[in-house]
Design goal:
Elements lengths: L2 H16 L2 H38 L2 H4 L4 E2 L6 E2 L2 H32 L2 H12 L6 H19 L9 H24 L3 H9 L4 H12 L1 H16 L3 H6 L17 H9 L7 H30 L5
Antiparallel strand pairs: 1-2
Helix pairs in contact: 2-13, 4-7, 4-10, 6-7, 7-10, 8-9, 10-13, 12-13
Length: 306
Amino acid sequence: MSESNHVRDIIRNNIKHRKNRLEMIMPKLFLIAGSISIFTTIGIVLTLLIDAYHFFEQVPIREIFSTKLAPLGVNPSFGILPLINGTIITSLIAMFVAVPVGLTAAMYLSEFSSENTRKIIKPVMEVLAGIPTIVYGFFAYSFVTPLLMNLIPTLEPKNALSPGIVMGIMIIPLVTSLSEDAMSSVPNDMREGALALGSTRLEVTLKVVIPAAISGIMASFVLAISRAIGETMIVTIASGSSKNFTLDITQSMQTMTAYIVEFTSGDAGIGTGYYSLYAVGLVLFIFTLIMNLLSRYISRKYREEY
């Protein structure tokens, strides 16, 4: 027997002896742990579908896509367009705040700040992400709204503008962190080549780095708006519970998440109104699912390989 075969046999014998019961069990435990999220997602989806089905059995489709929502009225109506309208408007206001501020902050951290400055500013900015959303809600209601009422006399105490702005502040760290990571992954050779051709640092940032990192930047925008769509406590506290279909951001609006909170905190029993919670939850789930799929599509389609 050759020396190599002898060594190979020794290795095989050692491997065989090491295959004790624990090593046979652990891969199965890892599989179970990895499957928990899958089964949880399946359970959530089934819960939404089953109970939403009871709602759609009782309410015609034409009523669902109406602008009248009065689930506890004498003649209940379940049009969800006011909720979709409020959710979209507050989320868009949040993005108008978060995108310019978050992107410019990411540009500074990635291209203009020193390493020591980045180590200080980025963690401090990410602390905003750890503040409970109910604190943001009271901040919007007790500070931002009175401040805006001094600037906009027609602004109502409960409105869509104030929570939209505060939601934008809340998701700034998400936009900044993900965009900065995307820009930092751009190879330095591209920056140095542009600088060697006479470009300024601002031109390099705008014309080289951002186009090269556009997939990660766009993904951060989509994930941020997905986070805004699913926000609950800020809009519940500061936006109010008006179910009117309006585009006036100075008035009170109700989002899908705020409707769920309001209805579940009341004394409504089992019935059409109760099942409407699952219908709204299903619509909200579809919204966030589309946003996440869009984020993955953008990341894959425009990703640059270096």
